[in-house]
Design a protein that fits this description.
The complex is a heterodimer.
Chain A lengths: L2 H15 L9 H12 L3 E6 L7 E5 L4 E6 L4 H16 L13 H4 L10 E4 L6 H20 L4 H10 L5
Parallel strand pairs in A: 1-3
Antiparallel strand pairs in A: 2-3, 2-4
Helix pairs in contact in A: 1-5, 3-5
Chain B lengths: L1 H19 L6 H19 L2 H11 L4 H24 L7 H20 L10 H29 L3 H32 L10 H47 L19 H19 L5 H13 L4 H21 L17 H21 L1
Helix pairs in contact in B: 1-2, 1-8, 2-4, 4-5, 4-6, 5-6, 6-7, 7-8, 8-9, 8-12, 9-12, 10-11, 11-12
Classes of the chains: A alpha+beta, B mainly alpha.
């Protein structure tokens, strides 16, 4: 692992440790807890056929909207939501124009004047995308290692956690 | 050779297992590490070389024995804390900790007062009784709850692991009772030749330790093998999608799959997500008619259930990859998404798809 990657990993791991972790884990419940902590609602909106991206975080003056691709499996949808939540937690900032995607076409029901920032999920060429993606992966990894609500979940989580992976 | 293996094998195993587990802020996992640490310290202190060294350095001949027994009591306390956590309690009962700490304090006093450690010497029987009493409660809980956990376990490795831990704990309890009977017989002048045999005196505790260590580690080993196997299986499908859409990879390929043995939890998760990203990118190139033909073909080949779905998906992916490579325009197909409802089932499904994909490409 290179120095830059290690630093990014450490930064994300610290963020994940500070997060509340619903047991059993549910990305939607995590969003609710984060929203309650920030005092701003987070709305999760499924959409079929988001072109060019598979998720979007749209921040308006009063609400955070997370759009996620519907035409995929539930665990993938959950990951897309966590990626967008990652942008929100890292306070990433990009104006609607900088995304390079026709937001008004993607989200025709949303007044463009209301949108303060937009971040999608399409490739990992920018540091922000890498950070949000790694954060989403580490949240999921931590959720798995914390186990679920049943006795067998707790046994697996406690006994299976071996340092080599 | 046998004595060497019995004497040094368990401590080496205990330290290896202790260091193989990373430190964690989760209390249950910390308790498992503490159990391993207690056993490792205890076993190491009682190896002939360390036993002699501690005596030589401190000038107290049998101090290593007291230290070893302290390690065992610590392991017993950690085991009780682990059980409390498994039962949904934050911590174990405080009096359990006091009981074990009190036992050790009495043992220290008896150790200091005893002239030597011969079974017939004054104080040695009492020492053995207190040592047994200090652990009996914890061992009883491990046996009782271990059997309950084994019955509730949903995975063979967890079930077997729990049963091995229970068997090891029964052996340990038998050994402690044997020590009490042995010292009691010596004190009161009775004959008890069985207690002094190699099998009971050395074999029983060594077997107890090995069973507990292996049992506590079996679920982790099985989990690692499960992840390694799925990671290998997913390789061909991931590489095919990566070649078509390199943007799916958070990190570039890190050498041959077969060498990726560390950090597999995250690696496997990334592979599943990146495959799903690749399949999503391919979605506009899927053809509903082709999938129907592939389904019929798979059915004729005798495939059913998940195997059939995986074979159909593998053929559809291969066709979509060809369509995209040949420059066909993307469409908006109404092809359904097949896969698991959660991460575990989706990993298993994609693993099946990847194997079918590799098989189809090996025969064409």
């Amino acid at each position: 692992m290179g120095t830059g990657r290690r630093r990014l990993h450490r930064r994300c791991a610290a963020l994940v440790r500070a997060l509340p972790m619903p047991v059993p884990f549910d990305a939607r419940a995590l969003c609710e807890q984060v929203a309650a902590g920030r005092g701003r609602p987070i709305r999760l909106v499924p959409m079929a056929g988001l072109t060019g991206v598979c998720g979007l975080w749209v921040s308006t003056a009063t609400t955070d909207l997370i759009f996620y691709e519907q035409v995929t499996t539930p665990p993938h949808q959950e990951h897309i939501i966590l990626h967008e939540l990652g942008h929100l937690l890292c306070d990433h900032h990009r104006s609607p124009d900088a995304l390079g995607l026709p937001v008004e076409q993607l989200l025709p029901n949303l007044d463009p004047a209301m949108v303060q920032r937009v971040l999608g999920r399409a490739g990992y060429t920018s540091e922000e995308e890498r950070e949000a993606e790694l954060l989403a992966s580490l949240i999921r990894e931590r959720a798995r290692s914390r186990g679920g609500g049943t006795l067998t979940d707790r046994l697996h989580a406690a006994l299976e956690d071996q340092g080599d992976g | 050779m046998g004595e060497l293996l019995v004497g040094y094998g368990p401590p080496v195993l205990a330290w290896a297992l202790f260091f193989s587990r990373r430190a964690s802020d989760d209390r249950a996992r910390r308790c498992v590490r503490w159990v391993l640490l207690g056993l490792a310290v205890s076993l190491t202190a009682l190896t002939p070389a360390v036993y002699a060294l501690v005596g030589e350095v401190t000038g107290i001949g049998h101090l290593a024995r007291l230290a070893g027994h302290g390690g065992m009591l610590f392991a017993a306390w950690a085991a009780q804390e682990f059980l409390a956590h498994m039962n949904g309690l934050g911590r174990g009962a405080r009096w359990h900790a006091w009981w074990i700490a009190g036992s050790f304090a009495v043992m220290c006093v008896l150790f200091a007062l005893a002239p030597d450690l011969y079974p017939q010497s004054p104080g040695v029987l009492e020492y053995c009784v207190v040592y047994l009493a200090g652990q009996a409660l914890a061992f009883g809980d491990v046996i009782r709850l271990g059997l309950r956990y084994a019955r509730a376990a949903d995975a063979p490795a967890l079930r077997t692991g729990m049963r091995l831990v229970v068997a090891g704990t029964v052996f340990a309890l038998l050994y402690l009772v044997n020590k009490v009977v042995l010292t009691g017989a010596a004190r009161f002048g009775s004959a008890y030749p069985l207690g002094d045999t190699f099998v009971v005196g050395k074999g029983l505790p060594a077997a107890a330790h090995v069973l507990v260590l292996v049992g506590a580690t079996l679920p982790a080993l099985a989990g690692w093998l499960h992840r390694y196997r799925h990671y290998q299986h997913l390789g061909p499908l991931w590489r095919a999608l990566y070649r078509a859409e390199p943007a799916i990879a958070l990190d570039p390929p890190a050498g041959p799959d077969v060498l990726q043995v560390g950090g597999l939890r995250l690696r496997l998760y990334r592979r599943v997500i990146e495959i799903r990203d690749g399949l999503l990118a391919l979605h506009p190139y899927r053809e509903g008619e082709f999938a129907a033909a592939a389904r019929e073909h798979a059915r004729r080949a005798g495939l059913r259930g998940q195997r059939l779905e995986a074979a159909v998906e593998a053929a559809a992916v291969a066709a979509a990859l060809r369509s995209r490579a040949s420059g066909d325009p993307p469409a908006a197909p109404a092809a359904p998404v097949t896969g698991g409802v959660d991460l575990a089932s989706d990993t298993v499904f994609l693993s099946r798809v990847a194997r079918a994909y590799r098989k189809q490409h090996a025969t064409t």
